[in-house]
């Protein structure tokens, strides 16, 4: 089991590394890597392919929650690190395996490692339902299978690797999102960078400002300028930047109701 520690505080990383090394033989740990921020972490994930990440929630520029949403699929398992237990519920809502209060003690760390081993050995893909959603299931099925929404703390930004460089994309700058093979295209005024995520996995984490409008697309409600009807109950959503986003009839009522609720 290869692990990655992501924490902006070096003493915290070093302490956790010592604890993990002490548990290496018993827990089946083969390597422990480190990263001091989200940009370095994303590069380490691409290069080292860790099985799991011990991820600090409160980091500057990009929080651990936002970094977790930016992890490429198939994403490593996540154990969140936090100095405040108020983050516990949010950590589990973004599909974390566990969370540890800092500074963590050895018995609590052993339990977290056991949970990781159980999940890894079981080989259960917790995101299989999300991939099924992107294959064209109904809105009701999508809602039942997607991760819980975070209405009080939606993501503010995402880390995206684009043409060899990693940059921050503000969620407020995303007009709409479109599936593209194993990626989603984040359509902004500055381009459409690709994030290796599923639409069904990302959408619940963006909060109520985004709504699915098509099997392969979602739109930011505040960007909608006009709704143009089409044949067979479909419609087009014209955004404030002139982009035209398809809206299929099965999602049309949800989109209309969501727009009305924001007026």
Strand and helix map with partners:
Blueprint: E1 2-6, H1 10-22, H2 24-27, E2 31-35, H3 38-48, E3 52-56, H4 64-70, E4 77-82, H5 88-93, E5 98-101, H6 106-122, H7 128-133, H8 139-145, E6 157-162, E7 165-170, E8 174-180, E9 183-188, E10 194-195, H9 199-202, E11 210-214, E12 217-220, E13 224-229, E14 235-239, E15 244-247, H10 249-261
Parallel strand pairs: 1-2, 1-3, 3-4, 4-5
Antiparallel strand pairs: 6-7, 8-9, 8-12, 9-10, 11-12, 13-14, 14-15
Keywords:
five-stranded antiparallel sheet, 10 helices, OB fold (Dihydrolipoamide Acetyltransferase, E2P), elongated, 2 domains, five-stranded parallel sheet, 263 residues, alpha/beta
Description:
The chain has 263 residues and is an alpha/beta fold. It folds into two domains: 2-126, Rossmann fold; 131-261, OB fold (Dihydrolipoamide Acetyltransferase, E2P) (Beta Barrel), CATH 2.40.50.1020. Helix content is 33%, strand content 29%. It has helices at residues 10-22, 24-27, 38-48, 64-70, 88-93, 106-122, 128-133, 139-145, 199-202, 249-261; strands spanning 2-6, 31-35, 52-56, 77-82, 98-101, 157-162, 165-170, 174-180, 183-188, 194-195, 210-214, 217-220, 224-229, 235-239, 244-247. The strands form four sheets. It has a five-stranded parallel β-sheet, sandwiched between helices. Strands 10-9-8-12-11 form a five-stranded antiparallel β-sheet. Strands 13-14-15 form a three-stranded antiparallel β-sheet. It is elongated, with a radius of gyration of 20 Å. Residues 124-152 have low confidence and may be disordered.
């Amino acid at each position: 089991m290869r692990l990655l520690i992501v924490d902006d505080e070096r003493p915290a990383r070093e302490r956790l590394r010592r604890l993990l090394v002490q548990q290496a033989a018993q827990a089946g740990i083969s390597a422990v890597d480190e990263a001091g921020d989200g940009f370095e972490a994303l590069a380490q994930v691409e290069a080292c392919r860790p099985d799991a990440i011990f991820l600090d929630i409160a980091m500057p520029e990009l929080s651990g929650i936002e970094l977790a949403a930016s992890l490429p699929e198939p994403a490593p398992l996540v154990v969140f690190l936090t100095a405040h237990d108020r983050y516990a519920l949010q950590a589990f809502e973004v599909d974390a395996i566990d969370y540890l209060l800092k500074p963590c003690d050895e018995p609590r760390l052993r339990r977290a490692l056991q949970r990781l081993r159980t999940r890894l050995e079981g080989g259960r893909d917790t995101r299989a339902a999300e991939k099924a959603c992107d294959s064209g299931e109904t809105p009701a099925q999508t809602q039942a299978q997607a991760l819980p929404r975070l209405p009080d703390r939606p993501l503010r930004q995402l880390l995206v690797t684009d043409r060899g460089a990693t940059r921050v994309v503000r969620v407020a700058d995303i007009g709409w999102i479109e599936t593209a093979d194993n990626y989603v295209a984040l359509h902004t005024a500055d381009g459409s960078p690709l994030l290796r995520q599923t639409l069904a996995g990302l959408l619940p984490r963006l909060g109520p400002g985004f709504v699915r409008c098509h099997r392969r697309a979602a739109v930011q409600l505040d960007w909608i300028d006009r709704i143009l009807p089409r044949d067979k109950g479909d419609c087009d959503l014209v955004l404030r930047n002139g982009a035209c986003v398809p809206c299929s009839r099965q999602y049309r009522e949800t989109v209309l109701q969501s727009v009305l609720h924001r007026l």
